[in-house]
Amino acid sequence: MRRVRQATTWRTFVAVGLLGLAACASASSGRSTPAVTPSGRDPGAAPGTSQPQRHDAGGVARVSGLDARPQRIAELERRMEVAELKLAQAQIEVEHGDLRHRQTIARLEKEFEFAKRRLEIFVEITIPLRIARAELELDRVDADCRAAEDELTHLDTVVTSAPTDDAPREAAVAQARQRVVQAQRERDLQREELRLLREVLLPLEQMERELEAERKKHAILEAHWDNERALLDRRMAVVAAEIELSRLEQELARARAELTPEGLPGEAAQDAEHAP
Predict the structure, then answer these.
(1) CA-based, 20 to 30 A from 258: which of 19, 22, 51, 99?
(2) Which pLDDT score is estimated for 62?
(3) Who's near 209: CB < 8 A, 6+ residues apart?
(4) Where are the alpha helices (DSSP H) in 31-68?
């Protein structure tokens, strides 16, 4: 009897368990899944109830794309530092160029003044002095020539008046005649040198000094012309450096604005705010 009652109790327990499982399955199959709006909120939920946000794959990609923006900003900041150095270098080059130009002009003006002064000294002092020295030398040679001629005339008179031939006197006359020829030749050469000095050598040297003064004056004008061209190049370099620096500043400002949530458009800003 005890074994019969135990078997009946066990069968009853199994039957009750099966009925319970069947009831749970029917309840689960009849339950409906709540609809979700595109914004991720259950339409059946209370208006004030907060629901967890749902992020799609595009939002995750946009949030992950923000990681490269700090690197871009750092790169722009380094490029701005280089641009600022280039601008400072261009400005310093303008100042140094002006200083070098002033120094060059001062040196060329002094050289021009020296050239003009040398020309004035040559015309006013050197030319008269050299002509006077040449004329004095010509006077000396002319005097020697006349003295030699007078001596020859005297010896000829002595030899001619002598009643007999005198060999020593004739030899003296021959030597005197030779000295006269040499003196006359030297006088002619000195006259030709004086003529060349007046007509060729001194005018040529004067022209050379005048040409040197003109070259110094033209060098000043060329220095001004070269500085104008170089100054334009230096100022263009400054303007180009300023434009590049302004462009980088604007690009950096845009990159920083895009990095902040306020600078992100629409859904990207919301994704950046709620990104873990």
Answers:
(1) 51
(2) 47
(3) 115, 118, 119, 122
(4) 57-65
